[in-house]
Amino acid sequence: VDLDTARQELEEFIPHVRNISDSSIRKMAGRDLVRFKRFKKQGIAIKFGRFSQKENDQIWRNVEEFLSITGIDSAEKLLFTSRYPEDKETINRLKAEHLFCEKLSEGIPRPWRLIYYRAGGVFDPNNYKGRYTKEEKEKLKKYHALHGNDWKKISELMSRSNLSVAMKYSEIKINYGPWSKEETQKLKHAVEEVIRKRMEMEDANSLSSSEKKRDLLIEREKLYQKLPWTEIEAKVGTRYWRQCKQKWTTILTNKMTKGQQLYRGTKGLQAKINLIKRLYEMEVEDGGGVNWEELSNTIGDVPRAYVQAKFYKLKVSCVPFWQKKTFSEIIDYLFEEKLPELEEKL
Question: Which residues form the Myb-like domain (predicted)?
């Protein structure tokens, strides 16, 4: 299929597909599209996030079965072929002949790339070398200065896995203190860049050349909905994606409320009361059924992420053993136990 058709068909299974590069789309069209359609016929949804034990076991079985079919004598040779240059040609031929991509992903409803990374994490002996010493951390910083994000090269120099050195460097470079002016500017520029890029792609066919030249007018929702935070994290360079998202939400909230303190004093009490009442009235069974956009008006003119963060703090601070309760049980507790207390306090 052509690139546009592949992207359109993949969007049914991967909502953020429009943010994926053309080269990755081509690979997914070959490795994943047929599999995804097969899973759909079986009523199985495509998964992301943490791998379950059942999926890990399936990866073990798939790798062991492929090794027995091909006669390759170790999972490391199969998954990290470049470490064995003398056997590389033979191993790659066997992979092609026996459909390695298909066999590795068998029975696992996830993108092939994620399955491959997980298999690497499970079978790479360099993944189990314990904590990094101070000397290793200094080496990692030095190698990164020399080779940038060439994690394959750095992993070979340090005898650690690609994933391990990349994650450790990410941890080393992250700043946990207050945001500097420079970091905040980088965040603003990064968000602006990804939003402009997305809107220009969306409007490329509908805008005339003269309209393309003028500044794009951005709908407010696009300033905080479904932003590619891992991409923004990479552009900022010194913060995790979650920190970037929280900081951006704070910046937007301050702009939208003109700096008013919506969640302090009596206004804060009233906002909590309104939030609990509205959630109770919605009668939803889980958080996925909540219209957070609608709820943002309960507190004020704020992004939905702000409301979600306030609800999280409310349940953590007010609901005992909230981790063991269902969403509806948490709402019932807040309505029956916490609401009267807040109203009396107000």
Answer: 124-169, 171-252
